[in-house]
Amino acid sequence: MNKHFAFYIVATLVVAMSLVSCNKDDDKSSSSTTTDYSIYSSATTLVSNFKLKANTNVLNNLDSVKFTIDQDRAIIYNADSLPKGTKVSALLVDVTCASSVSARQFIIKNGDVMKDTVIQYTNSTKDSIDFTGNVTLRITSRDASQAREYVVKVNVHKENPDTLEWPIERRSQLPGMNDNIIQSKTVMQNENLLCLVQDNSQYILSQTSDPEEGQWEKRVLSLPFTPQVNSLAATDNAIYLLDDNSELYESYDGGLNWTDTGVAWRTIIGAYGERVLGIVQDGELWKHDEYPRRDGFECSSVEASFPVAGMSQLVMAANGWTSNQQAMMAGGVLQNGTLTNAVWGYDGNKWGLLSQGGANALPKLRDATMVSYYSYVTPSGAFTPQRQVTWMVMGGKLETGNLNTTTYTSRNQGLNWIVGANSLQLPDYITAFYGAQAYTFMSTCSVNGVKPLGVITHITEWDCPYIYLCGGYAVNGEALASMWEGVLKGLTFKPIY
Predict the structure, then answer these.
(1) Residue 464 · residue 445 · CB < 8 Å
(2) In the chain, what are the domains?
(3) Which of 62, 204, 348, 390 could cross-link 324 (Cys pair, CB 3.0–4.6 Å)?
(4) What tens digit of pLDDT does each residue of 314-326 get?
């Protein structure tokens, strides 16, 4: 309860009790009494509740929009803005005051429909209010001795929160030495991005904990082997590469020194905790393997529907289905050389097929990019979109050899896929690609200390996840040495607490 409102209520009760006491004394000499409302008339100018009336032609559940009444500043507003495009030029309202009043007036100026209008409000008023202009609610006390004016705002988002933006000005270059990057691979290790590039004949391994700032620590590697750059993987404490003979090498000091593990793999799938997962090819036999191997681990045959190359990066994400962290990947090349649209999950012990085929499946792809991010969905019974974890697959090569330019989304951990909303598709100025990697990094959004209207608490900074889309290759195989920064517009809106 607002502290001023509470004060007025207490004051009213005290005065009322005093009046009752006096009335009892007066009863001895008079049979009639008159209450002097001017003593507490200021309390009757307080608005205790404000809401919009239902109108499905404007917005579903319009009457559930919550309004804040700031008695200190005499402002009434909805902190959670209505969706972009909501028409607010003709809305019916319901106003409740703390006590009986003599008049309630809406004064509208410079609205799209009402330029200069005064509406007398009663409980049976059917006149709508134009909130596109400046609206003031004037409350006059019961004895007409006092009046209070509230500024009334019906806030509407100016932008669609479900828009995934990739600002051109936020594009940066992958870290190299001579600006002639031939190939690249970017991985996540703990809270850092590691980027390996071949720049001319040099191999450069760079690291950053803040891709937004673009400050990379670069190291030219002195390798005792020729690496397969796209095989780079990083566990919690080591870096792994395959050489051109498929031998697995490891480094525990950031790439300074490398050791041959004695393991030969066809493919590195990715890292899970302190282990790296891979596939062994022995003649016509394909087997799952890991390094270092857990106690009791034995290689197992690769399923016919499991990709042996060309799968997306292995993406880590927590979920409520298993006790262990879930890792997922999409697409790839099967043992028979055909492409797959399967999505596989790994829980730290075994692989499981999450989706394949059917109406709600991905197209068959290789070298696609997968990332776990967010989108906005309006739940049933709500009026405003809510943030949901959303898996995205973009880029990659189709069976035709053409590059995929559609972003696909899943909101149920990769079980079902649909074409993402137009607002989630990549812009035309990002070149079609395959073989890129994408990661989310938490950054800080700020309003520079300004407290805009419609915010309950003085929040100046909040965490906001950004996507970083790294590298990849164009349709002609040329390396794309760019890193793009993407963000869902709604995540940059100031949070409401």
Answers:
(1) yes
(2) 3-153 (2.60.40), 164-492 (2.120.10)
(3) 348
(4) 998 765 444 578 8
